[in-house]
Amino acid sequence: MSLGINSSSVVAILGSNGSGKSTFVKACLGLAPIHRGTVSIFGTEFSHFKDRDRLGYVPQRIHDAMGIPATVSEVVESGRLSHGWLRRFTQEDKEKISHAIEVVGLKDRENDSINTLSGGQYQRTLIARALASEPDLLFLDEPTAGVDLATQNVFAEALKHLVQGGTTVVLVSHELGPLRPLIDRVIMFREGRVSFDGSPDAEAVDSHIFHDHPHSSSKPAEGWQI
Amino acid sequence: MMFFEFLEPAFMQRALLAALVVGLCAPLVGIFLVQRRLSLMGDGLGHIALTGVALGFLLQTNPVATAVIVASIGAIVVELIRAYGKTSGDVALAVLFYGGIAGGVLLIGLSSKKSNVNLLSYLFGSLTTVSKFDIALIVVLAVAIFFATLLLKKSLFALCHDSEFAQVSGIPVKLLSMLLAVMTAVTVTIAMRVVGLLLVSALMIIPVATAQQISKSFSGTRILSAAIGSFGAVSGVITSFYFDLAPGALIVVIVIFLFISSIGFSAYTRRRSLRLQVR
What we know:
The complex is a heterodimer.
Chain A: E1 10-14, H1 21-28, E2 40-41, E3 44-45, E4 55-58, H2 72-77, H3 91-103, H4 119-132, E5 137-141, H5 149-164, E6 168-173, E7 185-190, E8 193-198, H6 203-211
Parallel strand pairs in A: 1-6, 1-7, 4-5, 5-6
Antiparallel strand pairs in A: 2-3, 7-8
Chain B: H1 10-35, H2 41-59, H3 63-84, H4 89-110, H5 115-124, H6 132-151, H7 153-161, H8 163-168, H9 173-191, H10 200-214, H11 218-243, H12 247-278
């Protein structure tokens, strides 16, 4: 497959489980090996790409409440490390962290342990962590899967905020939900290949959402390339 | 001064200093191991350190120094297996760990016979045998670990909390994992004179498990676990002076007691806050 994504656009990648959408995002971020072909980000081949602060990532996450306690702001702080992982945080860093927490509506939970958060609140924390680095290109893997409508709306607001600032967003999802008005382009995956690429208003998008059961078990495609 | 008589012998002054710095540093490294679910890493590296101790006996040089070197090399190998070995990584680690013990026992067999008694002091800790060179090495390495964990606190947290995110953020995850493994190896070896190789991992893990019952933040857990570790180590050494018991075992019993108390404390506060909410 060959895909190009223009800057300042919001692209949704749809597809059923195992269609290769998460693998696609991981390959774009250097987290999954690529058998053949290349990934270029901002015109630079990924292995030579150094401006990591331009890149944001919200991973697909099952909330795990058993680890060492950490507060919401401690987790969001990690987002600023892409600007330099060995330096001390400046006042600017602290402001960005605080702002990111505010954008996702967790200001009152800032100093609470993530172990006490609901699944949706934890997802918002991970979104704030990505926002804190102020990326130019943001990848989101199933950001709204299994979260309540309140979180989905908060998320749509945060996304609007980012897009207005010129950020390019690539999000993987089963469905569009409240995000639909923000999306410029939909790419649908089926068995590791692009089965549709076009406007979110196209009929094919609706037929995917209504007819393709999100948990249908098509096997992951083997050895596909970008 | 009857009360401070434990401070009089020079070996006790050295043992207490060693206990203080080791008790402080072990949880500072251990917290990242717990977070990464590698709690038994310290145990495994302790096995490998035994070969280092035996090598020191054989070469008639300082066993702490050789143990630091051998355990650090072992840590790098373990980390490489973890990063690049896939299905057999688990088995390879087991081979390395048991190889460490076997190698240690064999090398000691090759050196002089009287070191078998000495070996026990490395396995279970000993107060009287901490030499001036040992204490100098322990303090220097402990200070290095203290500042390394302080400097790398945020990056190590990011790595252990979510390694994929850390990688995307441009944090050198392989290098940091390697560094964490080497810091674990160094902590194990400097702690072995006080706690003993067989119990050293307890001092890295249990204070962290205790602190996490009480604290709700990572930095709080970090500071509290270091305080619990140094308190447990120092009070264990003092108690062992009066009752002539192995310090390592006493230290571990003390931190386990604190751990059980913390579970009780956290259950009590949870129930109390629930009751307050209901009212």
